[in-house]
Amino acid sequence: MVQTEKIEWKVEGMTCSNCALTISKYLKKEGLKDVSVNLIDGDVSFEPGENGKQEKIKKGIEGLGYKVIDGQPTTANRQQFLKTPLQKFWFCLPFTLVLMLHMLPRHPDFLMNPWIQFGLCLPVFIVGMEYFGTSAVKSIRNGMPNMNVLIALGATAAFIYSLIATLMNLGEQYLYYESAATIITLVFLGYWMEDASIASTQKALKSLSAEQKVMANIIAFDDEHKEQIFSVENSQLRVGDLVLIKTGEHVPTDCKILWGECSVNESILTGESLPLEKHAKDSLIGGSIVENGTVKAQVTAVGKETILSKIVNLAKQAQSEKPPIQQLADKISGIFVPAVLIIAALTLVANYFLFHIPFDRSLMRSIAVLVIACPCAMGLATPAAIAVGLGRAAKNGILFKDAKSLELFKNIQQIVFDKTGTLTTGQFMISDFRFEIVNEEYFKRISYSLEKFSNHPIAKTITKQWKTCLSGRQAKDEIKWKKIEEIKGIGIKAIDNDDNNYAIGSYKIAENISSEKDHNIYLIKNNELLGWIDVKDEIRTEAKEVINYFRSKEIKTYLLSGDSNAKCRQIANELGIDEFYAEQTPEQKLELISKLNSVAPTAMIGDGINDAAALAKATIGISLSDATEIARQNSQVVLMNSGLQNLPLALGLGRHTFITIKQNLFWAFFYNIIAIPIAAIGLLTPGIAALAMGFSDVILAANSVRLRWKKVM
User: pTM here?
Assistant: First the structure.
């Protein structure tokens, strides 16, 4: 039986985009689906395919020169001798430094002995070939040459040329052992700098992941039913467990309060440091901090099912996706190694035969070309920027579901706002009502009995307020319906046991029997108006500032709502929205978004069931964390703070992440266009080329890391 859950591995040894492309091509060649390879953190995932095939795939990846880790690295692996590039660098450095001494004006005479130079270089060469050479041979054998081919070929050429000169006793001017050792040593240093730089781009997501591991006070009961409390790691918790959370403690996992109340800091997810008041039946998010109060809560989700885990996993998944701008870099990176080998060969031929440069110097120029040409920068340009952009977004309560959304933000020229629950708080109160024909108690009871079947915020308000004002008997004697259905964007229709037809909803259900358009809810029985209900909804405190921000950026704003024309005009005028569309059905919302998209790229932010189709159709769909499930599913971006305040930051991060990607790609192409000719004409030694190769990626990563602090709004 085929498994449905994706296989997720860690792969060590990926040093450039060429490596990621190599693994991706191999997995696809094996017929695997939904392949994702993340160069930044080494995550590889795919649908498992045939039973028993995973072991073959693992061996295949290792056959390409990489190391597959199914789960977390063990302590033994982490302590393995010469495991990391930094450890290899420190091992090679003393031998290389001693070799370099013979280049000084005053140096020990014994260093001029070719066999001593050979002896000093040999340990460095062996360590280097064990890493670069093994990887290079495996990649060539599989028809997918990687970056290590260039390093191995350059170091080997210098070492073999020097060894031949030693065996033939040609003299010290033909010895380049220090070049071979320097290449290997400095490339190890460069790889370590790359790893450190890339790790810094992951800082935000790593801090989120770290918050998931805390201790929990679990509540249990002994044989005498007395409460006992003991500490366990939150990874041991299960759904349904009872936990005690006290002042100053982290909420160990997602849970619901059963007893007590507290103030909670949810800035880990929302970026909002002001504490929120939580009471019985309220939900707590794992990783948040109880600043004041003590509660007993029941675990509702653990492990990968918690909100925090889902955010981290979605952010990692988005990192591994390639936005359109990365496609060119991937194509170039895929043919880069063969192209560099050809350029290096032409450099050797042209220098020796056309410009009559001595063979040893021509060879050193060719080796410098091999070493300095670095496809890593092209491959890292997009992932490094996206990693920082997504990390900063996640730390501020902005969840991008895919990397493409970051890039799409750069083109947004229009933004459409839903009204209820988006521009307004969605916390309604009944402000007025009027009933006709029937008495007040009957009017309330009918309204309550109908609206309890709807999830619309206005319906929930009516249900909540009038359930408490009806007496116990009246609430118990609510109407029983033979048939009832909710019509999106309009309201609810029902038939009772006596075949009376009822309807409650917007003006659309009453337009044939009433000329009063300005009320929120109308109640009708057998095509006769029984009355209307008005509710008031506060505008979000941040709404005006957010609208002003978009207008300052010359982004046109729209209000799109199913509410009455009068109420929409009032909101639009108060907030300064450019245009509004009122009394819109879900179909009309979808049609309008399609029309706006045809004019210019359009973002939409909404939270209701009736917004779902329009959100999916927009260039970018944005929803709030407390939106309906279907609205969140149809959005590419979710604002986790239940408000609009971070919407400008989402737009700014999207645009500036794209700017950073363009800067990175410019640097990557500029570096190679300039560096290769400079190496080819002999202005760079192989050692300097090796160091420059490492620094090119550090510069690129540092530019990406700037996104963590850069002003983007």
Answer: 0.65
